[in-house]
Automatic annotation (TrEMBL):
The lineage of its organism: Eukaryota, Metazoa, Chordata, Craniata, Vertebrata. InterPro entries: Ig-like_dom, Ig-like_dom_sf, Ig-like_fold, Ig_sub, Ig_V-set, IgSF_BTN/MOG. It comes from the Eukaryota. It comes from Betta splendens. Keywords: Disulfide bond, Glycoprotein, Immunoglobulin domain, Membrane, Signal, Transmembrane, Transmembrane helix. It holds the Pfam family V-set. GO terms for cellular component: external side of plasma membrane. Residues 1-18 form the signal peptide. Residues 128-157 are annotated as: Disordered. One of its GO terms (biological process) is regulation of cytokine production. It is found in: Membrane. This is Myelin-oligodendrocyte glycoprotein-like isoform X2. Residues 13-131 form the Ig-like domain. The chain crosses the membrane at residues 164-186.
């Protein structure tokens, strides 16, 4: 093999390496303190990274959560709070699977995690939220209450019930009841009113005639 062929092979190998991307879960991972969690990270297309460096870090802290290099785990630069609690499957590395398992999560474990393969320039991030566990074993994490908008009446403060005077309500009710009792129906009531007007007019004429003999 001459020198030209050698450099061509190196160029092709580097080009193939540069075409891989890391893919993480896009939705936040929600867990309760004390539970375990597995953070997903895959290479696309699949690629054997057994001989490559793989690191998981906390983005906002710029510190190492788990480091794999020289074909073994390196706990030297690992954050103290993660020691003995993280696991990266070495067997899955040959298939480009970089999932990280974290056991017994603490509230301080909440944050953004980055999966990174430096040689491939491939990385992705995902967010972990950790809810506090109550004494009964349930999580205290709750959804915010839904806000509703109530109609506003001019002259009345928001949220204050509109009050109608009791006297007005009683008067209206009494008038309705009296009308129904005395008239029975609208048509009958109108006839009674016309008769009463005719009687008043007749009495008025009698009075006028008596005053003018």
């Amino acid at each position: 093999m001459n020198v030209i062929h050698f450099f061509v092979l190196i160029f092709l190998a580097e080009a193939a390496v540069a075409q891989h991307d890391a893919v993480c879960q896009t939705q936040p991972v929600k867990v309760v303190e004390g539970d375990d969690v597995t953070l997903r990270c895959r290479l696309r297309p699949s690629f054997d990274v057994t001989g490559y460096t793989v690191d998981w870090t906390r983005v906002e802290l710029h510190q190492v959560v788990h480091l794999y290099r020289h074909r073994k785990d390196d706990t030297g630069p690992q954050m103290e709070q993660y020691r003995t609690r993280t696991e990266l499957s070495h067997q899955n590395l040959s298939r480009g699977v970089l999932d990280l398992h974290i056991s017994s999560l603490h509230l301080s474990d909440a944050g953004e995690y980055r999966c990174h393969v430096p040689r491939l320039s491939a990385s992705c991030t995902q967010t972990v939220t950790v809810g506090k566990r109550d004494e009964d074993g349930t999580s205290t994490t709750k959804a915010p209450p839904i806000k509703t908008t109530e109609p506003h009446t001019p002259g009345v403060s928001a949220g204050e019930p509109v009050q109608v005077p009791v006297v007005i309500c009683v008067s209206i009710a009494a008038a309705v009841v009296l009308t129904l009792v005395t008239c029975g129906s609208v048509r009958h009531c109108s006839r009674r009113i016309r008769r009463r007007e005719e009687m008043l007019n007749a009495n008025h004429e009698v009075v006028v005639l008596s005053l003018n003999p």
